[in-house]
Amino acid sequence: MRRSENGKRDIWIAGILGVVIVALATYLLVDHRSQSTASTDSPAVTGHHSSLARLHPHDPLALGPVDAPVVLIIYSDYRCPFCAKFSRDTEPQLIERYVNAGKLRIEWRDLPIFGTQSVQAAKAGRAAAEQGRFWEFNRAVYRHAPDRGHAELTDKILLDRAREAAVPDLARFQTAVEGDRLLPAVQQDIQEAVAIGAASTPVFLINDQPVVGAQPLDVFISVIEQAQR
After folding, report:
1. Does 13 lie in the same domain as 106?
2. What is the DSSP letter of 206?
3. Contact 120, 80 (CB under 8 A)
4. Which residue from 13, 55, 87, 158 has the least number of CB within 10 angstroms?
5. CA–CA distance from 7 to each of 165, 181, 202 (Å)?
6. Are residues 104 and 200 located together in one domain of the fold?
7. Which residues touch 177 (CB under 8 Å, ≥6 apart)?
8. Are residues 16 and 99 in the same domain?
């Protein structure tokens, strides 16, 4: 029975990674620039996608009020060093300056592009979200991420991060990570990212303005301020 469940999970993950590989291949044909130097006007991501904001009042993968004038959607991978840089250096300042003032809503999307561990981490984030600890888990993972290279995120490490994030029921968390119940939600996020041409991480949509890569804080402030006008 256990082998059958693992086989089913592997098929799901293979399908998800297949979608990502196709998206990456398309991206490489369109735009050869490095994700670390991408700019706010990258042709790999098309604008006018503010309708992608889900605005669910009780979405555990979101911060800020649903009626905020600006919505920032993050397409991110837990193993991405540039995503970690944004989480550590930029996101806290955006929260303090805009989210806490009711001017900005942040919505998370999973875009796991760095293999099976990325997919497992995406499921882990959602497993933490089910217990009201998504952002705590999210920050715990990125807090330990290396400045370069991809973080090692085995199931054991994910469990350690859940413990650090004070996820109350670790057995329930582990069961969710090992199973395939949360994979369709991850796949939905990937399909959304592919639809707008996002095949690298991190990618952001600020209302209808794409921002690609871990840009300096001033870039985000400029786009947010412009979106409020």
Report:
1. no
2. E
3. no
4. 55
5. 30, 14, 30
6. yes
7. 120, 123, 124, 127, 155, 158, 159
8. no
| pLDDT tens for each residue of 180-190 | 999 999 999 99
What span, in angstroms and rounded, lies between the C-alpha atoms of 116 and 79?
Answer: 11
pTM above 0.90, yes or no: no
The angle formed by the CA atoms of residues 110, 112 and 113, to the nearest 5 degrees, is: 145
Q: Which of 179, 187, 124, 184 is nearest to 5 (CA)?
A: 179
Three-state SS string over 98-161 comes to HHCCCCEEEEEEECCCCCHHHHHHHHHHHHHHCCCCHHHHHHHHHHCCCCCCCCCCCHHHHHHH
Same domain, 71 and 180: yes
The phi, psi pair for 223, rounded to 5°, reads -70, -40
Structural domain range at position 89? 53-226
Count Cβ neighbours within 10 Å for each residue of 56-75 and write b for 16 or more, e otherwise. eeeebbbbbeeebebbbbbb
Classify residue 40: in a domain, yes or no: no
